[in-house]
Amino acid sequence: MVEFSGFYKLPMEERIRRIAEHARLSDSEVSLLRGSGALSLESVDRMVENAVGAVHLPLGLGLNFIINGKEYVVPMALEEPSVVAAASHGAKLCLPEGFTASADEPIMTGQIQLVGLKDARGAISSVLAHRDELEKTAKKLLQSMESRGGGFRGISAKQFRTPRGAMAVFYFDVDVRDSMGANTLNTFLEGIAPRVQEYAGEGKVRLRILSNLATKRMARAKAVWKKEVIGPEAVEAVLDAYELACADVYRAATHNKGIMNGIDALALATGNDWRAVEAGAHAYASLKGYTSLTRYGKDSSGSLVGEIELPMALATVGGSIGSNPIAKISLKILNAASARELSMVAACVGLANNFAALRALCVEGIQKGHMELQARNLAMLAGASPTEADEVALQLTKEGAYKLGRAKEILKTIRSKKN
Ligand code: MEV
Predict the structure, then answer these.
(1) Active site residue 282
(2) 362: Cβ below 6 Å to ligand 1?
(3) Which site from 40, 161, 268, 401 is most exposed, i.e. has the minimal number of CB atoms within 10 Å?
(4) How much of the chain is helix, strand and coil, in % rounded to 5?
């Protein structure tokens, strides 16, 4: 952790030098970080249709994360000021213990929908009577995943009465190892659907698609913020804020948005499908009526105990990761050996961001940090050097005047005093 103390105060070049040393980045990886053309037009063209360019986002580092005793430097890609600082601050305040975290085996669930049924229950029984054959076919279709220690894990079914008649849905569980699993699941489901149709004896297969509500792929994290460190008032304040998220869905949405700020940023930095993680998180939050993804309470010494649990379909291989050099560098910086480890880190980042947001909202308000960054931005836009920018920003903040014109005037005065 020593090599990162005061990291935010260092010039950009020095920060790059330090992270390169820490993550053993090669010269070409360092030049990718320095440059802005990390995604070549050639790869962009392979990734989406009608491609005309690439959008870039700042890449920041979440610091102070000790998780199950291991130190992590967390790459975070996003445009919103304060989120990286909030995550790092939330993580710092629970040191030296840091976080404990766990994640389930990477099991994704896919659905096959059968419609036009006269007897949904009968169709389900007929299909499930062929469980062994289905398992054999599944293992064949998932051969490559099976050979990596993953593969078929089970089948279940449910019937639904809908305005369009009775439907049956078959849920296939597949261990997708270090991938996100969408391609594996969707290909597999399309492959096995004809068997389901045949064994059902009636009806028609419609959807064959993975579910983003990955309840068999959960990640959990826990941290204790000591009363002596954050102060007894902050403990009470966070508990009050938390209870509101449990009581009021309008607050729960914003509360959970703050959690996803950090998780999405890590997902984006590592080339993951952050929309899938978002969908899973919010669907999970609504299982018993939309509510907070975190829980808070006090331990016997009056310290704040925070916990989070949510589905986490994150990958360290596959998807667009291979064609995204910055994603590969981010994974190198994170140094997580598996998708499960990445998921644990994501849960901790979500918890850290949530704690930091609640504390800041109740204690000092979140605008202070935002405005300090805004002041620095204005100073740089006014033409200040990094050292002058600190002085200009300080004055702008003191005056509460966040205008480019005023930044230029202050810079002029500073320079005239020096000459
Ligand atoms: C802003 O991006 C996130 C917050 O609104 C989260 C919250 O209110 O808990 C600060």
Answers:
(1) no
(2) no
(3) 161
(4) 55, 20, 25
C-alpha 94/C-alpha 224 separation (Å) is 6
400 Cβ neighbours under 8 A, 6+ residues apart: none
The conformational region for residue 203 under phi > 0 = left, psi -120 to 50 = alpha, else beta, is: left
Q: Which residue in 9, 118, 370, 403 is the catalytic one?
A: 370
Residue located nearest, by CA, to atom 9 of ligand 1: 255
Residue 377 resides in a domain: yes
Is the CB of residue 258 below 6 angstroms from any atom belonging to ligand 1?
yes
Residue 257 annotated to the active site: yes
Residue 394 lies in a domain: yes
DSSP state, residue 29: H
3-state DSSP assignment of residue 284: helix
293 token code pair: 């993804």
**Residue 96: strand, helix, or coil:** coil
Q: Which two tokens stand for residue 126?
A: 């007929």
**Is there a single domain that holds both residue 203 and residue 347?**
no
Among 29, 264, 273, 341, the active-site one is 273
Domain count, the chain: 3
Residue numbers of the domain that contains 385: 369-418
**Residue 87 backbone phi and psi in degrees, to 5:** -60, -45
Q: Are residues 238 and 337 both part of a single domain?
A: yes
Q: Are residues 234 and 360 in the same domain?
A: yes
Q: Is the CB of 257 under 6 A from ligand 1?
A: yes
CATH of the domain at 182: 3.30.70.420
pLDDT along the chain (419 residues), means of 10: 80 92 94 78 85 89 98 96 95 98 98 97 98 98 97 98 97 98 97 98 97 98 98 97 98 98 98 97 98 98 98 94 90 97 98 97 77 85 88 90 93 89
Verify that 228 and 359 share a domain, yes or no. Answer: yes
Q: Which atom of ligand 1 is nearest to the CA of 80?
A: 2
For the beta carbon of residue 129, count every other beta carbon within 10 angstroms.
11
Closest CA to 358 of 228, 221, 255: 255
Hey, which of 255, 256, 363 would you mutate to test ligand 1's pocket, going by the most ligand atoms within 8 Å of its Cβ?
255
Is residue 338 situated within a structural domain?
A: yes
